[in-house]
Task: structure prediction
Amino acid sequence: MAGVGVCPRTLHGQGYEAGGPIFRQIAGQIENSIVDGTLAEETQAPSTTELAAFHRINPATAAKGINQLVADGVLYKRRGVGMFVASGAREQLRKRRRSEFAQQYLRPLLAEADKLGIGTQELTTMINDRKERR
Result:
């Protein structure tokens, strides 16, 4: 793995979830590493071969996850060298994930708060209290 920006072992969320396609989970692990800065922009990403060997999956499955990230503009190929994290990928992923966060978590949270009569101030206090307890 000489010359690789990150070892597959440093990717986040290495367990596989039942029901989710493994190629999407591989792509998600790479995305997580980009979002948190473990895998920096313009650095080399793990190769399909490395991912397949480390996770003991078919190389075609690993390639499908990588190809999804290429199609999304998160990774790009340097001919003869490998896959690299695109410039601006971190912000692109963070923007998309913020939108997903609002859809998946905030909408239901606010709907439930409304049902229970919890106002914005009380909800903010509850969130701050939880953050302090972490």
Notes: Residues 1-5 have pLDDT under 50 and may be disordered. The CA atoms of residues 33 and 39 lie 5 Å apart. The two ends are 36 Å apart (CA to CA). Strands lie at 75-78, 82-85.
